[in-house]
Write the structure tokens for this entry.
Amino acid sequence: MEEASEKKVEYLELIYDLIFVYVIGRNNALLHHFEGGFFSADTFWTFLVATLVILQVWYFSTLFINRYGSNGVSDHVALFINMYLLYYLADGTRLDGSGYYYIRYNLAWGLILVNLAAQYWRKLRRSHGMMPWEDRHLKYHMRLLLIQAAVVFSSIPLYGVFHFPLSWLSLLVGFAAAAFTSRIDALVPVNFEHLTERVMLYVVFSFGETIIAIAEYFVEGLSFRNFYFSLLAFLIVTGLFLSYGFLYNHIIDRERVTTGTLYMMAHIGLILSLSCITAALEFMREPEVSEIAKNIFLVAAFLAYYASLFFVGTYAKPEYRADGKYLAVLIAAAAVFALAMALCYRSGFASIAVSAIFVYAVFGMIATRYRRVSRQRAE
């Protein structure tokens, strides 16, 4: 336990996370292919699957490093192999669905899963049966990864016959297993302090992608319209980050003993919704995008972000956990936001202003409740 408490995020992990930010940026570009004023359902499905694949690989890698990473040579080699393969996976993310790119994408994905399974195998080989509960955990996850890899590889010849992608079924296998393996994962709890720091840094990188995206607001000529939209877009991104940062710095119980499964799942939802917010903010300044569609998409992305943030908040220190009254206030604020956006959807000026007000209203509620509870405890 003393050794686990001193576990720190290594530079290698940060470099590894950067490749995921790059790939997610490539995935976000899929949403900029419009048909009739907005992207199609098929386009969003491709974006969703591609993003979840990346986030699941990140999820598996993060939990392995947290539990078993030693920052040794084998860890370096395994991560660099996956980084290299992720470039191929990123290049294979296309909307055209050609056989060449499908094969390229799924070969890379399957090999990444095999490489992750090999990391569990190396750890199992070195354990020499000293801790049977740990061996059971290692064997379970190694087999799960190999099953997922088998699904991905087998989808390649099936695609050649039926011209229908089936590799996404591997995602269902992985996430379903994560949802129903609490007893197995409880055998080897995570180092939650390390996990929260690692995930926080990845969220910071993801916000970096959002900041780069809204830079387009600043490249046009000087006018009131450009100043107005650039300022509010910047304030929205800042407010979103403030809510997450406040939660991380003041509310999350980082000494908790846990498997970390829900915490990681909530962050997958948070990062996915942040990608959608990034795209939605870019749509706000594009007149060719349908007004109704882009406002619905923006509202849905915001609500998904805060729902994910709520689940992150279930790991709060006991005194700061949300009660029914606080949850009702948050839901009411979300309903008012959705109604206001529906009423002013024709005006980009009004829509982005309502969004900014909502973002800071939620941050204000989080910060105010924290200070009130802290003051009550002090008294």
